[in-house]
């Protein structure tokens, strides 16, 4: 299929309704506690890493002082295990007073003073996944109001210890309850992940109307295998998932684990590049106090972030799975630009992949190509063969400008570009990008 056709079809589907709270017109960005810090509540033996006020204040300080906030990383999201095991005398959730002595309002003030936003976590069931009080149907209104009173900006609604019937009622009900508080609160639904992530069980039209983002698939873990299994699932099911996404409503393949223990630098670039292609929310789950400069520069790469945040909000797709184990991904961007990712699933050595923009179905023209991770720029005619060298489990990522029209004088009478005026480089040694 030709990309011009794709683009108009997708642009149409992107205008269908999104949750009407005006939020998250581009994928939300920030930091989320879960993958890195889990349910560590041992503040006696592990004070630096336990789920506590201090941890979130530390991360807020890092986001605001180390250049993250200016790039768009503004959410600081609490996950499970923040609350007391008991509701208060008025039936409201309350933070564990030992670990959050100032309560949630102190944290939200601290964040708002620094231009950051606060996210919090709840669960549809009788208990959260970690065994803390859940938000069953009859608690939805009071909990939504409590979060609004605390000036929370985002809410993730998990689904442990609930069932299908309860979820079907509860996820839409919470959407209504959050709206009724009058406070714009970004709404992250774990619902589809509990339904297998696919139609007919999952209704992505409905999800887009009630949630800003949703977890489609299992939790990410600190391993390359986990990243790869998520990538495969999302792109194997891209025909279902792509039309579901758009401004205000996003598929969420889960947190970035860049800066943790498992990923090499190449694998870290791969996660970042593929999350940008997927128009995924960018929630880091790492320790910003001790992150390496290598991981930081990948997460702070301005071009990848701008691709992720493209205002059209069209989720990209896998366009090729080569026998060589190179896969090619493509995402259309505003102003006729696009992003390309060449991803190696090989395990031997850097692979020299040869193709041309024409073979990737780009229309006739001359393109400015910017290599996102090396900062190199070049100009490529659609028909020019080139070679990218892709490291094992690594990527090469390009931002490709809109095509510049080939100069009039260079067309023949029927409007076909005359190859010879470009130096007849079809058989020349292909360009190499390293
Ligand atoms: C290019 O378009 C053709 C014709 O629609 C299609 O068969 C082919 O798979 C496309 N190639 C890529 C890389 O998308
Ligand atoms: C609530 O929903 C209405 C109607 O969809 C919308 O106009 C309004 O902005 C929403 N308010 C909040 C706080 O989300
Ligand atoms: C689902 O959970 C609700 C509330 O716990 C319970 O009343 C209902 O019987 C359950 N339904 C099924 C089908 O298990
Ligand atoms: C999915 O949800 C939409 C919007 O809520 C609704 O109009 C449609 O009927 C639903 N589709 C199915 C198959 O239930």
From TrEMBL:
Its EC number is 3.2.1.-. GO terms for molecular function: alpha-galactosidase activity. Keywords: Disulfide bond, Glycoprotein, Glycosidase, Hydrolase, Lipid metabolism, Lysosome, Signal. Its main location: other. One of its GO terms (cellular component) is membrane. It is an enzyme of class 3 (hydrolase). Residues 1-18 form the signal peptide. The keyword DNA-binding does not apply. One of its GO terms (biological process) is glycolipid catabolic process. Residues 313-394 form the Alpha galactosidase A C-terminal domain. Belongs to the glycosyl hydrolase 27 family. Homodimer. This is Alpha-galactosidase.
